[in-house]
Amino acid sequence: MKKIHTDKAPKVIGPYSQAVHHHHFVFTSGQIPLNPETGVLVTDNFKAEVLQVLSNLDAVLTASGSSLKKVAKLTVFLTDLSNFSELNEVFNTYFDEHLPARSAVQVSALPMNARVEIEAVGTI
Fold first, then answer.
1. What is the mean pLDDT of residues 11-28?
2. Beta-strand (E) ranges in 1-124?
């Protein structure tokens, strides 16, 4: 396995990697809407938060030789499932022809009180 790191995504805040590359797959750690340049959590509105998360994920995937267009599976963690329709609106702009498998679950809390966290399994 190869550890993946990029400065274009938020730094890790614990003993884990942004992602690992194994065989033809990239497994990312969950990304929250943390701006990697400022270290500040995006909280403007839910769609902006999802956009930041997808930007962070794409940076990690790109550093590994993959991208959002090569994602096989996404797991979405939401603190409120009532935001699900807004999540889908943003996803429709990112995933038009390529539709990865996806799970979405509601959780009681996320790091830094984020409202959304997404992890991905990408292909190389």
1. 95
2. 2-4, 19-22, 25-28, 71-78, 101-106, 116-123
Stated pTM of the model:
0.96
Give the chain's domains with CATH numbers: 2-123 (3.30.1330.40)
Interacting residues of 99 by C-beta distance below 8 A, sequence separation 6+: none
Is the Cβ–Cβ distance between 104 and 78 less than 8 Å? yes
Q: Which residues of 93-115 are buried (b: 16+ CB within 10 A; e: fewer)?
A: ebbeeeebebebeeeeebeeebb
Other Cβ atoms closer than 10 A to 82: 9
Extract the tokens encoding 70.
Answer: 């090569």
* Coil/strand/helix, residue 5: coil
Torsions phi, psi for 108 (to 5 deg) = -80, -30
In this structure, are residues 89 and 47 in contact, taking their beta carbons and an 8 Å threshold?
yes
Q: Provide the strand spans (E) within 7-70.
A: 19-22, 25-28
Residues in the chain: 124
Q: Please compute the mean of the pLDDT values over residues 66-88 and round it to a whole number.
A: 97
Q: Judge contact between 122 and 64, C-beta under 8 A.
A: yes
